[in-house]
Amino acid sequence: MADTKAPDSTRRSERSRRAIYDAALALVGEVGYARTTIEGIAARAGVGKQTIYRWWPSKAAVLLEAFVDLGVQANEALGGDADTEIPDTGDLEADLKFVLRATVDELNDPRHDAPSRALAAEGVVNPELGARFVEQLLEPQLQLYVKRLSAAREAGQVRREIDPRIALELFVGPLAHRWLLRTAPLTHAYADSLVEYALHGLAPR
Amino acid sequence: MADTKAPDSTRRSERSRRAIYDAALALVGEVGYARTTIEGIAARAGVGKQTIYRWWPSKAAVLLEAFVDLGVQANEALGGDADTEIPDTGDLEADLKFVLRATVDELNDPRHDAPSRALAAEGVVNPELGARFVEQLLEPQLQLYVKRLSAAREAGQVRREIDPRIALELFVGPLAHRWLLRTAPLTHAYADSLVEYALHGLAPR
Amino acid sequence: MADTKAPDSTRRSERSRRAIYDAALALVGEVGYARTTIEGIAARAGVGKQTIYRWWPSKAAVLLEAFVDLGVQANEALGGDADTEIPDTGDLEADLKFVLRATVDELNDPRHDAPSRALAAEGVVNPELGARFVEQLLEPQLQLYVKRLSAAREAGQVRREIDPRIALELFVGPLAHRWLLRTAPLTHAYADSLVEYALHGLAPR
Amino acid sequence: MADTKAPDSTRRSERSRRAIYDAALALVGEVGYARTTIEGIAARAGVGKQTIYRWWPSKAAVLLEAFVDLGVQANEALGGDADTEIPDTGDLEADLKFVLRATVDELNDPRHDAPSRALAAEGVVNPELGARFVEQLLEPQLQLYVKRLSAAREAGQVRREIDPRIALELFVGPLAHRWLLRTAPLTHAYADSLVEYALHGLAPR
DNA sequence: ATATAAGCGAGACGGTACGTCGGGTCTTGAA
DNA sequence: TTCAAGACCCGACGTACCGTCTCGCTTATAT
Questions:
Q1: Which of these, B3, C107, C187, D75, is most buried using a 10 Å CB contact count?
Q2: Does domain C9-77 correspond to CATH entry 3.40.50.720?
Q3: How far does the CA of C31 sit from the C1' of F10, in Å?
């Protein structure tokens, strides 16, 4: 028996839920995550504070859900699963460059920058939220790489002994590193280099 | 004409500075970064709050300096530059595995975990601090890779067209990724795989 | 359009209000007005600081209300309006000596001395508070004099052309003067002299 | 053997003393007593804080001295003791009305209002300062009344049994009362009434 | 069809920490 | 030694939010 009282989610106000998502995203965009407060979200959403505390454990949780919802919303708007796959033209190198370039563009898009940085940062420090961040936002993306790399392995474009779960990090890891810590700019050229280095190795053959 | 009034750093109390570093690191270790407060640091250090506000712009800045100082201190204690180089035995693969395993151990060390996560997270969200984090803590490490990889290139163990600045991210990026987002455990085996994959490439030869 | 946000007084906590009055009076009694702080009052009352700032503009305002409430409380305790009148025995001189002696005793009472001095001092310097001090604490007393002196005038014990509003100050003014500035001790003999001098005049008849 | 260290007043900087007086009076005039700070006075006077703490025990003490000095200064400027006496034309009533009217004018003068109210208020609450306030500023004035009233008693214009020390308060007390507590406006008419009431008494003759 | 109970908006409440101001002490360097 | 300058420890300021807790009000079953 968990929290002395579990709210009845069938009676939950959809209206408020949406308003809270909107307010949260808007505020993070406008003033940044740190200066976004639960009181502020409630006020902006025209909602009582309790309505937030009833359904979410923390500011970060609200934002995470809002962000996930944003993706769901976008996807539904596109009718179904648009570009939800890494293309398979048979040319692995080209396909990977294509997605990595797309990822670079997305990471450079200022609309997504603030909220996703905020979530990532919070996840770094808060394991519970980090797990949900990974599970709901990151993992689905990574699975696409697993799938594509496995296919490439079947097709003999990747060595048999390679584990796709690890291999994908050669692409995603450096990108995330540059993005999170801003060690250097994220460019298409960089994405290309990454793919080339990773596929062909650093050592001479 | 910066802040309407710059304090006179020649009159700064070294005593207070040290006490603040110590208090900050201790508190972050004990209660975590989020619940470490400037008031708490001041109280623990036996120092007025103003003395902190006079010299640092934020909690994160205090901690960053404290952390950097910790490194400096440790280095001096060791008389000079102990293990401040990546070994060069002539066997690049072995040397890289060696350092990466050491890095894995360090990242898994709970004493350094809390404060460095906190700093990294703050840097993700706060560009100014992030820049200082990178410059003072990360970059020196990265330079060691640049140096070792350049040597390897001279020795013909790395292809001529490889840019060491980018190459190093194939090792460091995935490690940081796993560490920051906890997508999977950091093990020596993982470090080894990374080195092998990156040096020899994913594609068959 | 007053303060951008007026609190809803129907929701006010009576419990807190009382606790704040008690704490304020206790502290002023114990450490004096100057060393009584809002933080101290809040802590002693077991109340958040904001609860004080929400309802009062200043420390002096809290104390004034607490003091007024004290009077109200005392009066209610006595069932009704005990000694809330200047007696009228027909002998004006005796009646005035009686009240002035009582006032002298009250002013010499150390329990009331500290808080009422503090309020008076604050009122001297802060017109707004001074007005409320006069209106809520002083004026009701003065009205008693107006009433008694008017009766005396009707009875022919005071000259027709005398304005009671001014006449009362011949009694109250000197008393207040001695009390506030401590120019000389406040005694019954002094009270008596005042009454005699004022009633019969300084000039020979 | 008082304060562990008595400063050597022969080496005191006259320059600083004057600058502190000026700064103190100017600040009280500009921002009021409560918001005048020792730091502010020091900064304005171009003086170290210690120089103030060395020579005065409190803000109020500085202001009191500055105020007294103002009077001395003014008097010296007038070559000697201008209007430092209550006139004696033989007509006591006229003479008293004259001085009381002058006092009313002075109390209504906004230049003297702020600082003298501040000092009076501080004296109400701080006995030590109050004593010095009375002794240095008030008492000299009161002595003038004592002198004039004594002369009047000798001349038979005041009853033999009247004590001038008390009698003077019938004039000064009500005036101070109105001024300090702002119970009613201070006018010449009021001053006149006071003199008439006090001299001839309230009771019919 | 109506009681009954939940979610809801609003916002007061006890708290913690913020970043700032000023108090009074102490130290440094110039005169 | 005094002085200007200002760093220091400290305590309080008034504000912002936290998360909890009533208050009516509305809505949506469950009698």
A1: C107
A2: no
A3: 19
